[in-house]
Amino acid sequence: MRKIVVSEFVSLDNVIQAPGGPEEDTEGGFTHGGWTGPFWHDDIGKHFFEEMSQSDAMLLGRKTWQTHGGAFNPMPDGDPFGDVMNKTPKYVVSTTLTSTSAWRNSTLIRANVVDEIRALKEQPGKNIVIDGSSVLVHTLAQNDLVDEYSLLVYPIVLGNGKKLFPEGLNVSLRLIASEQFPSGVVLMRYARA
């Protein structure tokens, strides 16, 4: 059975909203977009490629899919990040999208989300990775569909924003790996206990 790996940039106070830029996701009046920038280190990029090499599919919520697709789909062949993101099959969960033409290699999941994702896990293959997608991550966690959390924990407290773990979730995890990067970011990988 395939594993679902939630791979997130997360602040010390559990925020995953808009790590990449100020305009990425301002929902709820969020004004801290781009909070990961000052902590970039090339080892974080290396971690991305390692994680993607262990995966052969991505699972995304609509907003994250649209943001990623807008950034990666226009990239020309030969861009290392673009090639990985564009060639990887993607499953986007949305009740409002009618087409996946905005980002190549995408398939739409519109209904029976939990059952459809369980069926994806039953298919042969490597890991299915999900990032961003806070609403979808909450649904997966609440339905015991997350096998691992791969968290890049940033040494910053944001005070507000969309959270990785939903209110009321009670789950036991065990640490399976950790690594500190020179910029103060710590990779923590957890599996279900």
TrEMBL record:
Pfam family, one: RibD_C
Gene3D superfamilies assigned to the protein according to its UniProt record, in alphabetical order: Dihydrofolate Reductase, subunit A
Any GO molecular function: 5-amino-6-(5-phosphoribosylamino)uracil reductase activity
Alphabetical GO biological process terms: riboflavin biosynthetic process
Domain (Bacterial bifunctional deaminase-reductase C-terminal): residue spans on this chain: 2-187
Membrane spanning stretches: none
Record PANTHER family: BIFUNCTIONAL DEAMINASE-REDUCTASE DOMAIN PROTEIN (PTHR38011:SF2), DIHYDROFOLATE REDUCTASE FAMILY PROTEIN (AFU_ORTHOLOGUE AFUA_8G06820) (PTHR38011)
The protein's name in its UniProt record: Dihydrofolate reductase
Source species: Ktedonospora formicarum
